[in-house]
Amino acid sequence: MNIEKLQQTAQGMAAPGRGILAMDESTPTCSKRFEKLGIPCTAEHRRSYRDMLVTTPGLGKYISGAILFDETLRQSTLSGTPFAVHLQQQGIIPGIKVDAGAKALAGHGDEKVTEGLDGLRERLAEYAAMGARFAKWRSVITIGAGMPSPACSMANAHGLARYAALCQEADMVPIVEPEVLIDGDHTIERCFEVTRDVQQMVFAQLTEQGVMMSGIILKPSMVIPGKDCVQQATIEQVAEQTVRCLQETVPADVPGIAFLSGGQSDEEATAHLNAMNRLGKKLPWAVTFSYGRALQAAAMETWGGKAENVERAQKVVSHRARMNGAAASGEYAPDMEQQAA
Question: Is 32 a catalytic residue?
Answer without folding.
Answer: no
